[in-house]
Design goal:
Layout lengths: L3 H4 L2 H6 L12 H58 L1
């Protein structure tokens, strides 16, 4: 914000809400409800990430298994081809 050109840019001012003060809740109950909702959202997002991590791990294992299987098949084809040629 030390650059006056950027600081005076309308887009930058809107992004950082420089012309409008943020609205804060007036009561403790409202603040508590907001924070609880945020904590619930964070917990839900963490669960989603955990589920996606498990899914990714399962796919990685499946890809590894299929890659190994493909290598075995390629080796078998090479072996059969060598026997057939000889």
């Amino acid at each position: 914000m030390s650059n006056n050109i950027l600081k005076n840019s309308q887009i930058v001012r809107e992004f950082f809400c420089l012309d409008e003060a943020p609205i804060y809740s007036e009561s403790m109950e409202e603040c508590r409800a907001i924070f609880e909702a945020q904590e619930e959202t964070i917990a839900h997002l963490k669960l989603q990430l955990s589920n996606r991590d498990e899914t990714i791990l399962a796919y990685e294992k499946k890809i590894s298994s299929m890659t190994h299987h493909n290598e075995l098949l390629q080796n078998a084809i090479k072996y059969v081809t060598i026997i057939y040629i000889v």
